[in-house]
């Protein structure tokens, strides 16, 4: 897979996940000890696993659009991959810190989001820094 392919796939997946967060049948109510949020609109668990709210969904949609735009060139897709790697690594760490695990009450970053954000950061880091393009894609 090329870095442009990575950006395209991540863009599509982020966009679909962001949209899925707005589908009530895919979101269950939070249960158990979850921190309160200042923005409780759409607060729930996507697929019963991942804490989300309105802002979380909008961020996913924006990352999706960014990925689609970034997939148009190798330079933009590398920038996208590196940005996703850094941002999602920071979000993963923030999800482990009390107070930061809700990004100051704005959006949930705790629970299953921690390992998912770490995994996304690792994949993006590979395509941002380690992956080498071969063939025609490397000249774009």
Automatic annotation (TrEMBL):
Keywords: Membrane, Transmembrane, Transmembrane helix. It comes from the Bacteria. The chain crosses the membrane at residues 45-67, 79-97, 109-130. The keyword Transmembrane helix applies. This is DUF4383 domain-containing protein. It comes from Novosphingobium endophyticum. The lineage of its organism: Bacteria, Pseudomonadati, Pseudomonadota, Alphaproteobacteria, Sphingomonadales.
